[in-house]
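The material for today's practical consists of a large collection of protein records. There is nothing in a record beyond a sequence line and a structure line. As an example, a complete record with its sequence and its structure tokens follows:
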Amino acid sequence: MHKKNETRIKRATKTRKKLRELAVPALSVHKTGQHLYAQIFSGDGTKTLASASTLDKGLVAEGSSRTNQEAAKAVGEAIAKKAKEAGIETVGFDRSGYLYHGKVKALADAAREAGLKF
């Protein structure tokens, strides 16, 4: 594994440990080269309560990029909407060790604007 990915995983492990101690639902973000994913897990981390990604139909316009900040905003709004439908208002933010910048920040800001608290 590359050093960059190892350090990201170390950061993610610390965050996840703290979220488990707090026992709150966690909004987890994962990025790949082609897509962006967001899931809300239960407080103990055993169940997925809501999920959204750039793979969802109608979320990202056909022919547009699925990896830019506009796509991240769409995923953030979608996950917040699904969380509210599931009765979730407050979550902990698990950025999976990624820096709070760019797409991760855009997703988080869009989820906050749509009414999710973290």
Notes: The mean pLDDT is 93. The longest strand covers residues 26-31.
